[in-house]
Amino acid sequence: MQKKLLSWQTLTLIAPSHYYPPSFLLSSRSFNHSPSPPSETYDPPFSPLSKTLKSKERIPTLNSEIDKNIPFQSDLPFDFRHSYSETDPSIKPIGFREPPRFSPFGPGRLNRKWNGVSAPAVGVSDRDKVSEERESVLGDPLMEEEIEELVERYRHNDCSRQINLGKCGVTHNMLDDIHNHWKRAEAVRIKCLGVPTLDIDNDKTGGKIIYRQINILLLYRGRNYDPKQRPTVPLMLWKPYVPIYPKLVKNIADGLTFEETKEMRNRALNAPALMKLTRNGVYVNVVDKVREAFKTEEVVRLDCNHVETSDCKRIGVKLRDLVPCVPILFKNCQIVIWRGKNFQDFTNSKLLD
Hints:
The chain is an alpha+beta fold. The chain contains ten helices and ten strands. Helices cover 28% and strands 12% of the residues.
């Protein structure tokens, strides 16, 4: 004899007996149930009996996924960093927001020691050997017809082999993404937006840029590229905190007095802005326009009202290194830069080159 199933009203009152007094439990049944039918009356279930559930597949745990051959041995000839295009290795941090012993690759999973900024390469790499290996993978140069065919196949917006380059630039895990695309495609389309468009010449993948149009790049893998022989890139498990670097803008610019620095800041804030930058825009012409403006102006202002504060600082660092110039103010999303006293010598050296 099948037992009568509980109705939905009773299910809402199921709870351990110590939550309610016995009198309440008895009264709840009397209020929510009609008199019980005779025991010999057949009371079918609301739905047919379900089939026997199959045992669920075993969910792999973290310990079962860890490779037994840890720590991972990497012979790639460069230091592992979170970003290869938005950080300058020559600038040393003055502090850290997290202990340097916390490696973003995971504890004990890499044979390199994390120093808070990067994981330096173990040993000294032979640059000539690395260059020879890259040339052997690239093979013979592509013919013009081959380049045109690849460009026509991968340059369009509906291309499925695309990687978006964000504010962090070329990140470490992006190297693995590029090689994953190269498994099934000869080239990968890279779309750059924001700060990286100021300078997009960095390359750690070993490929070759065969097409460049404003902020669109096509990276070719090479004639002799073998996915089975691809370099294994250990992945970062989380994004490390950015270290604390020296102050970008000084109270008194180098080579100026306090009054001169203050006067230049006020002059730039009261003058029309050279350019208005948009959020996640394309800034490929900013460096050239700033250099051109410095031929007639001593100080220049860029309007960044629609740009995030962190991006403003990244843009200022890029301009300081690429123009070069001296940032003297970051205030209310306004970037004020001074050409410096050595700007004339820089332009003359460019003309001589």
